[in-house]
Amino acid sequence: MVITRERDASRIVSSIARWIAGLKPAFGSKFYFEKYGVSKCIKSKLSSFKGRKFCPFCNKEFKRISSFIAHLIRVHTKDIENLVIKCNNEICREKRVSSRRTISITLKSAIKKAL
Ligand SMILES: [Zn+2]
């Protein structure tokens, strides 16, 4: 899977942020990123941080879920993107599909969707 649409990319980042924060999905009965094959890989890498309000990327702790999610999106969109790309690469390695394409994100809309 290669994420090509900006809308999807920002939804994936915000739904991953919500998932890490232990919140229910914002996009229907399934978490948005669970639509994609990478979700299993992402979950396996982040599951120990789920619901702890403890940033997996910089070890910062948060009291409020909303500020935790905003932090994840504001500070770590690139880290989340890289994780998605890394998982893509793991899945696509045999197919030799290039997943290095940049996922462009509208930060403002991602934060808005996640909160
Ligand atoms: Zn952080």
Task: Give the number of domains.
Answer: 1
Q: Mean pLDDT, nearest integer?
A: 79
Care to count the β-strands? 0
Major sheet size, sense and barrel closure: none
The shape, in one word, is globular
* Contiguous uncertain segments of 5+ residues: 97-102
Mind telling me the C-alpha Rg? 13 Å
- Helical element count? 4
Q: What is the fold's blueprint, element by element?
A:
Layout: H1 6-21, H2 39-46, H3 65-92, H4 107-114
This protein binds zinc ion.
Zinc ion binds at residues 55, 57-58, 60, 71, 75-76.
Structural account:
This protein has one domain. 52% of the residues lie in helices and 0% in strands. The chain is built from 4 helices and no strands. The longest helix has 28 residues. About 5% of the residues have low confidence. Bound molecules: zinc ion (ZN). The site of zinc ion has 7 residues, from helix 3. Zinc ion binds next to helix 3.
Compact description:
The chain is an all-alpha fold and 115 residues long.
Short descriptors:
globular, binds zinc ion, 115 residues, 52% helix, 4 helices, mainly alpha
